[in-house]
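**User:** You know discrete backbone vocabularies at least as well as I do. Would you mind producing a protein record, from residues through to fold? Write it directly below this note and I will take it from there.

**Assistant:**
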Amino acid sequence: MKTTGHAACALLLCGAAACATPAEPVERTVTASQAIIGGWDAPEDAHVVALLGAGGVVCTGTLITPRAVLTAAHCAALVPTAVRFEGSALAAPLAIAIATFDAHPEFDAKTLENDLAILTLVERAPLDVVAPPVWTQPIGAELGGSGLRVVGYGRSSASDAAIRLQGWVSIAAIQPKSLRTVAGPSQPCHGDSGGPAFSFIEGKQYLVGVISSGDAACSEHANIVRTDAFFASFIAPMLAAVADGAARVGQRCFHPDNCVASTDCYTGAATSGYAYCTRACEDDAACLPGMTCTAQPGGSSLCVFPLPPGERGSPCIADTDCNSMHCARTRGTAVCADTCIPHVIPCASGTECLPDTAHPDHFACFAAMPPPPATSAEAPAVARAAEAWSALRPPPALESRSGCAVAPARLGDSTRALGWSALALLAGACRRRRAVRRFDST
């Protein structure tokens, strides 16, 4: 257990480099090496799990159904691959692989707004581990003077093993989406990100929040994301989607048991898309529209999508439909796409960076389109210009500006009138074509 220090650095912000003591308080994500300050062992909280990554324990989470763990969205940056259950209810610690990690679609990594995520497990949690109830009703002012019990897997030092600790904090302010807490006498710190905040309401313990961030020294305050603020819009829909047997053929599946009976969760050859439910088939007639009966290794055939759902370029309605978390729109079509910034973050070959009308002031990578053909009204003008130019002697090199040729530096006396008239026709047609392209592109 670590006593309060003067400064602490979040791994997400500083990596392995050391950080100087800040001149002003710094907001930090609680994901590095310190445990709950003033805390003590929490052997009974088997539903509070350690998120495991390449460096060992990277974050904390809370089991809320046998398949789902609630945690902080910023923990995704530390790439957890499994969760570890342990406690008095279990004979020995048990690690279960993570199947999917879904952050809130409006999570902002810079401001830590909406810092909430649900991860699903490849296997069900042990039967002896009971998930706590999640508080869903609006939190009222009556909690303002109440304490919260927080639990997390922070470490006292980088060389120590991560131990699950608990402690009490006091609520300093109730905000629309979060609770601001102060030491009471404990305080969450690095390593406790994603851990739970419990409150006793009407004699029963409820999960009311998820540990998110606080000041760098872990001495002044902490921010806890409220479960009630996100239950109807994010938590409940996700829990319904990941339940065993909840997904039908063609729908996204989060884990092997997510599909209805007699169907399978299929990953196929997707590079950036989601797994989805499929079934055996003999021909296309046995498949849903848009799916085809495709032979698989081993001799069987399954109904599959030519382009997996969530894959770049696949149709979408919301950001959550895409593995890139970006459902972009241009030319009237919404598709899953990568984010880009013109001349800064480029697009992959075969795509172009265009304005995303679904997200104002954002750009996305869309399949490159050939230049639009000349309209019927423009065709005669372009033809007359081309015929006029063919009558000229080989002209000096033309300067190209945005795809349109400007006047040659010099023309012979006998062709000057013809040349300028041809240029006028060609330039007018070109300007109209550029205007059409800009309109279509936005």
Observations:
- Residues 75 and 304 are 33 Å apart (CA to CA).
- The chain has four domains: 1-243, 245-304, 319-367, 379-393+400-406+413-441.
- The first strand starts at residue 27 and ends at 29.
- The longest helix spans residues 416-441.
